[in-house]
Design a protein that fits this description.
EC 1.15.1.1; manganese ion binding; Mn/Fe_SOD_N; Helix Hairpins; about 55% helix; metal-binding; binds fe (ii) ion; minor pseudopilin epsh fold; three-stranded antiparallel β-sheet; antioxidant
């Protein structure tokens, strides 16, 4: 009886399901103004409601296009559709990266009242000490990476599973993210929209200030779970 029902359900399931659940903005654990004076409430509000929302919308749209094109090429394989599928890749990479990076970023930040800026403890603290000597040194290495972003990009502190789980600092451009065995522990946004309203051209000040609101508890959790 059960097997017959499953089989009937499968026969009725359309191959292309357009009404998928969309990605959405993540819930924030704090108010927009909670990271002041290090990151202004105005920046956080615009960053979240406008910039991140744009990546959410763009990613959903690219996923819809991909699903439609995938369904289409399954029915009628041809080079025109394959070219269109490749055309969607750039939007998937850009908006999917923007969506993912900002989700990491918000979770990486916390006001002092929620432990923001408090140094990590446990195995992450030990790993930092072993590799960099101190948290301050790791922050300096990360700041140098951020300062090296020409235009827009990100720097990530990662746990590199291809290198025995050691820490590394990785810089990417645009909304490129880290994937595979590089597990992001801390993601820092070096796009102008992340600091310009408050810091203007003094981006090094933003890179120094952000450590006051870095949520090392979240980073330690990611390190331990990877
Ligand atoms: Fe951003």
């Amino acid at each position: 009886m059960f097997a017959r029902n499953v089989s009937a359900t499968l026969r009725q399931t359309p191959r292309f399901i357009s009404k998928r659940t969309k990605v959405t903005l993540p819930e924030l654990d704090w108010d927009f103004g909670a990271l002041e004076p290090h990151i202004s409430g105005q920046i956080n509000e615009l960053h979240y409601t406008k910039h991140h929302q744009t990546y959410v919308n763009g990613f959903n749209s690219a996923l819809d296009q991909l699903a439609e094109l995938t369904s289409s090429i399954e029915k009628d394989p041809n080079p025109k559709t394959s070219k269109q599928i490749l055309g969607v890749q750039q939007n998937l990479k850009f908006h999917g990266g923007g969506y993912t990076n900002h989700c990491l970023f918000w979770k990486n930040l916390a006001p002092a009242s929620q432990g923001g800026g408090e140094p990590p403890t446990g195995s992450l603290a030990e790993q930092i000490k072993q590799q960099y000597g101190s948290l301050d040194k790791l922050q300096k290495v990360t700041n140098a990476s951020l300062a090296g972003v020409q235009g827009s990009g990100w720097s990530f502190i990662v746990k590199d599973l291809d290198n025995g789980g050691k820490l590394d600092v990785v810089q990417t451009y645009n909304q490129d993210t880290v994937t595979g065995n590089k597990i992001p522990l801390v993601a820092i946004d070096a796009w102008e929209h992340a600091y310009y309203l408050q810091y203007q051209n003094r981006k090094a000040e933003y890179f120094n200030a952000i450590w006051n609101v870095i949520n090392w508890k979240e980073a330690a959790k990611r390190f331990e779970n990877a």
